[in-house]
Structures are given as C-alpha cells and as structure tokens.
Amino acid sequence: MSDVYVVGIGMTKFGKHPDRTVVDLGSEAVREAIRDAEVDPRRIEAAYCGHVFQGMVAGQRVLAQTGLAGIPLTNVEDACSSGAVAIREAALAIRAGEHDVVLAFGMEHLTGRFRGALTPAEDDLEAAVGLTMPAIYAMRARRHMEEFGTTRRQLALVSVKNKRNASLNPLSQFQTPVSVEEVLASRPIAEPLCLYDCSPVSDGAAAVVLCSARWLRQLTRSQRPIRLAAAALRSGEVESGLPSMAFEPLTRRTAEAAYEQAGLGPEEIDLAEVHDCFSIAEVLRVEGLGLFPVGEYPDRLERGEADIGGRLPINPSGGLLGKGHPLGATGVAQVVEVVRQLRGQAGPRQVAGARVGLAHCRGGKAAGVEGAACTVNILAA
Amino acid sequence: MVEVTETGRSGVVPVHPDVFAGELEGEPQLVGSRCRQCGARFFPRRGVCARCLSAEVEVVPLGRVGTLHTYTVVYQSTPEFPTPYILAYVDLPEGVRLLAPLAGVPVDQVRIGMPLRLQVEPLRTDAAGRTVLGYRLYAHGGGA
Question: Is A325 annotated in the active site?
Fold first, then answer.
C-alpha cells in the first residue's frame, strides 16, 4: 500500500455569501488547491466531493467549471463528516493503487437553505417530537455538568478561545473575539446553550490534492508534502440500555482505529482540529479522542492548556464556532488547517514546532443510535 | 358531498410508525423490543438485535413511569414546534431511554432524577389535518 500525501490545499473565506453559488465557491477552492499543488490539472485522475444539501451531482458541476470534467467523481454524503469522508475515499483509491493523484473537496451553501437550528432527518423519531441539533447537545452539556461539575462559564470559554483563534484567521466567518460575558448574554437557543455556544450557518468550500508516494518522488515541489498517516471512519452503534451521554464511545473507537493506522498515540499529537459544532461538543470530542482525561477538559481549558501556545492547542483555526461550519466543507477545511500548521504557514496562529496534527469530524443523529458518522484524519510532517 | 381525505377512516396518525402497538383509536401501547437470545432492549424497536445479531427480537410493552436523565428548554426550532418547550430524556425501568416533550412542570422545578410519567396523547395536527398521536412526560407522584 502506498503512503498518501497532501500536496495542495485551497479554501474560500467561510461566511455568508448571498451573491455566490456553491459551484462558484467549490471552484475557487479547487483551483487554489491545484495551483498550490503545482500540478497540471490533466494529471488529476479522480475526485471526491463532500456535501449535504447541494442537490444532485453537485461535484460534477464544479468539475465542469474547473477544467476537470470527464474524470471519475463520487459525491459523498455523511452529514457533517462528508468532507472528511471524501478525503478518506480519495486516500483509499490511492492506497489501492487505482489512482496516483486525486482531488478531494467539500462545499456547502447553507445560508440559501437554512436559518437557525438544523434538525435530524424529517422522518426520524426524535425529530418528530421536536429534537433539534442544539437541543441534543444542550442535554449532553447538562449531563457533563451533572457528572463532572463542569460549569456554564467553562463551556463559554470554549467559544471565547475559538473565536479568539478565528480572529487570527482571515478566512474565518467571525473576525472579532468575544468575552465570557458576551457568550452568556447571547440569546438562549437550547438551555444551557446560547447563540455563541453554537456554530453559525455558513457558506464555503475547501479542497485538497492527494497523491501517492510514487508520484511524489517524480516531482520537486516548493511546498513540503504532508503525509496522511491515518484516515479512519466509523458509524454509530445502536444503543441498548442506558449509555452515558457525557462521553462519546463512537469518537473513542474511531480515534483508536486512527492511532493504530498511524502507529502513534494521542500523546504524540501536537494540535487538533475537532468538531466543535457547539461549545460542549469540543469537550466531548477531545475527551473521546483521549487528548484530555475524561471529565477534565473544562478545568484544563480554563488553565490555558488548549490555547495556541498551550500544552495541546485545540482548534487553532477558530474551529466551527469561529471559522464557520459549511457542513460539507468542514472536514476538508480542518485538514487544510492542519496542513498549514505542519507546513509552518499559519501566521499569527502558528503552533510552534507542530509535527503531527489530528482532524476529527462527527456528523448526523438518528434516534437510538449514538451518532451517525465519525472520522479521524491524522497528518504528519 | 363526499369528503375525501388522505387519511382514510382514521384521521389519527402515530408520531412515528415504530412506537405504538394496537389500535390508535383505542389505548395504544408504547412499545420497544427485547432480544430473546441475549435480553438486550431497544427503543425504538429493532428487527435484529444490535448486540448479538439474533433475529429473535420481540416487541414488548414499555412502562409509563421513569426518571429524568437530562433535559433542555428549546428556544429555536422548526415552525411546527412553537417555542419555548421542554424536551427530556426519561429512563424507563425496562432499561431504555426515550425522548419526549415535558409538560406541566415549571422550568425551575425540573430536576435530573425526578420521577416522570409518560402519557399517550395527541401532540398536534399535521398539514393534512390529521391528529398526530404521541406522548408527553409529566411529573409523577407529588409533583406538579
């Protein structure tokens, strides 16, 4: 099996783009990734596109705008993990020896379709009794508070940190830091979560070019190639009995698979982009990933361990809370950030000496299932 | 004039096809499933046991009294759910957890661990004018 390398990255600004189409956004990210990879577009052999709500054959519409039409393209839907799954599919195609140079991208124009809270699929039992995505995370937040003594103020600190990091990222939706007081004073969405505990409705796209070791050796590049050391995917188990709502076995299982693939453990991770769709979500993710002990993240966050410059920076890009969350683009944008960090190109938010980075996505909800899709990608300089 | 509706004779639809057994016009029974091989219980019900993969899974009635596991007050939702409303997960003695609206309890009196009672009742009217039959949670014993 060939090693897989990320040799090109591209990303649009995340935010509200009322005057642009999803194809326009996707094309911008794809063109930038190809330029960054210094690859002739005719060398790209296949493409994978992650999106959730962009309609039929959205990926092919982008190919038609970027001079790539004709190659095999697979559209991938796995809720918020869609983009990360597109990357994994691209990596599998390379490892299998089928292709040497593959494009993976993700995109979403969400502001044209949604306002406010997303909900599970319409025919889901829990959606039918009024469940929203903020509501499920609010109920998990209350359990984390109950079981570990986590405070409302500590949850707010997740948003404060990520919006501060976002203010250092020119591609972020939010460019202004917020205070704990501002988070707590923002309007309630699902108690105990307020507006600033929730990731925004966003438009945007991100893309990466992946290649095999064989192809990498044929070229001299100006950018340092970053190895994709693991690309793990799991789906949620059916729950029986009364499982904890303050811990994520799905994230733990996916992480264990990724650590095994990469041949390293959580103590070797220098930075992580995790799926902070809500403030409490970052807590559940880093504890599930084994990056912080279960129940201890809120205290350690308060002590600055997750800050840029701290022991283990979490979401230096600004995360979903600060950078924005255009569903299909999110998992690809996380990898774009990790690659930037490992190349040493993250500017004022650079994590000093970063050599190994992790990206975690978790998407979807169905009644009686712990979660739908979970991905962990690990990259190494 | 003959009145024609999509609903046929009933005019009552369950909130989800998997949750009730029996006639909707009578007193429908809230159900889950239990694996005859390993005893695992599920809600909503499953055709195959997710734990041991046995297909010998039977539909079993669920009790009506349990304890509150966690809750939230929803302030932003879809148009068919007027806000604010309380949602809660209740743990039933059969070892399953289910989500339902909580009614009749002031928010400041809602507590993790409080006893709750499930009541089968209409939740709303759907776009076709049919009664959507579901269930709500109420405080149980000594509560509001």
Answer: yes
Helix and strand totals (H; E) in chain A:
13, 11
Alpha-carbon torsion (B30, B32, B33, B39), positive or negative: negative
Residues of A with CB under 8 A from a CB of B: 116-117, 119, 123, 125-126, 128-132, 134-135, 138-140, 142-143, 146, 187-193, 237-242, 245, 367-368
Check A190 against B72: CB less than 8 A apart.
yes
Name the residue in chain B with its Cα closest to that of A238: B50
Which amino acid type is present at position A12? T
User: Closest chain A residue to B94 measured between Cα atoms?
Assistant: A241
Q: How many CB pairs under 8 A join A and B?
A: 102
Residues A271-327: pLDDT tens digits? 999 999 999 999 999 999 999 999 999 999 999 999 999 999 999 999 999 999 999
Closest among A153, A142, A207 to A11, alpha carbons compared: A207
Unique residue bearing structure tokens 């959606």: A127
Q: What is the pLDDT of residue B10?
A: 65
Could you say which DSSP state residue A348 is in? Answer: G
Q: Are A105 and A26 in contact (CB under 8 A)?
A: yes
Q: What is the pLDDT of residues A238-259, one digit of tens each?
A: 888 899 999 999 999 999 999 9
Tell me which residue has tokens 């809660």: B88
B-chain residues near A189 (CB < 8 A): 75-76
Characterize the bridge pairing of strands A203-212 and A4-11. antiparallel
ipTM: 0.91
d(CA B31, CA B120): 12
